[in-house]
Amino acid sequence: MLDHEHGDARLYRKGKTASELRFMGHTLTDNRNGLVVNAMVTQADGYAEREAAKAMINDVRQSHEEETTLTLGADKGYDAQEFIKALQQMNVLPHVAQNKSGRKSAVPDAVADSEGYAMSREKRKCIEQGFGWAKTVGHMRQVLVRGLEKVDQMFVLTMTAYNLTRLRTLEQVRLQGAR
User: Fold this and answer.
1) pTM of the predicted structure, to 2 decimals
2) Which top CATH class is 2-171?
3) What is the mean pLDDT of residues 26-32?
4) Which of 2, 46, 51, 149 has the maximal Cβ count within 10 Å?
5) Closest CA to 99 of 115, 114, 84
């Protein structure tokens, strides 16, 4: 979530915090290296995360052959029947955390019991590293531009910079492994 004081920002509350004017930043990351493969900003509402995820997956799907099965790891906020069905229609395995608090999860048990699902669960926390970097180093906690389009441009540029720092780290790891 990106704090913003003007323009197209909407009141939004996450958890038990007070409502504030915000945009929502969304990223799609590669499980293998933790690189951001897609990023976008939307107006904050109750559906923005799932709608953004579907749009970003659709972009990625266009760069892969149709029969290639992709996986999507996400937190339990994405465990909604409509979203899981949309993923399955796009040939994407839903490695979404099951939300079983007082209801049945939309994620099939066969998927949740798989080895790949367990691996995705471990990698899921890597997504937060990019957001932490963007808020502290990338100055995205309180943006200085107005309007959805400008905030989106700033966010995409910031996540690109995050990828560059991540690539430097990956290169250092690769070089140490070659010794």
Assistant:
1) 0.79
2) alpha beta
3) 89
4) 2
5) 84
